[in-house]
């Protein structure tokens, strides 16, 4: 297998993993709404069931169409599909991000996490709109960069569910003894750290290369 094929195989394997994780957590979360299980939904969320269903339905465009935007083979050979799915991605991401503001004030039980998810929703809206406006201006490089940022924001849905499992196997967050505080920290880590890492590769690393150390 030559180097080009190895890279393509690695990219496909990565996105299969991403889609598998997204599917697992997505359907695990939305199942109680589809089959209407009031006990699992809870009294706090039950009056806003349709808001939550709308939020999840729109977010499916982010989680499942997002990876298809980043696979070069699909992007280059199926241009019409790429454009159509990209529009669905943008619409779904914006709807999902906007509904966050309704849900935070009504269904969320972690007060310390409300500012975190509010900032995340704002950044998600901003990066998604910038991805749209940049491609309208035919700036493909900026479009790609903002799409990556937008997807990282949407993928926080998966990161937040991975963190407790990571702690279960490693105990890395056990030094935070209070459960409420620990889950509040998860809500911040799930998007702040991934976005910082993303910015390192998109912005900082190219700038560092220009500096003769």
Number of helices: 9
Overall geometric form = globular
How much beta, percentage-wise?
under 5%
Gyration radius, rounded: 19 Å
What's the count of strands? Answer: 0
- Overall pLDDT score: 86
Spatial gap, N to C terminus: 37 Å
Task: List segments where confidence is low: pLDDT < 50 over at least 5 consecutive residues.
Answer: none
Helix coverage percent of residues? over 70%
H/E element string? HHHHHHHHH
**Structural class, from helix and strand content?**
mainly alpha
Biggest β-sheet description:
none
Q: Topology of this protein?
A:
Layout: H1 3-34, H2 38-41, H3 49-70, H4 72-77, H5 79-104, H6 114-136, H7 140-154, H8 156-170, H9 179-209
Helix pairs in contact: 1-3, 3-5, 3-7, 5-6, 6-7, 7-9, 8-9
Any overview of this molecule?
- The longest helix has 32 residues, at 3-34.
- The chain contains nine helices and no strands.
- Helix 3 (49-70) packs antiparallel against helix 5, helix 6 (114-136) runs antiparallel to helix 7 (140-154) and helix 7 (140-154) packs antiparallel against helix 9.
- Helix content is 82%, strand content 0%.
- The protein has helices spanning 3-34, 38-41, 49-70, 72-77, 79-104, 114-136, 140-154, 156-170, 179-209.
Using brief descriptors, characterize the structure shown.
213 residues; 82% helix; mainly alpha
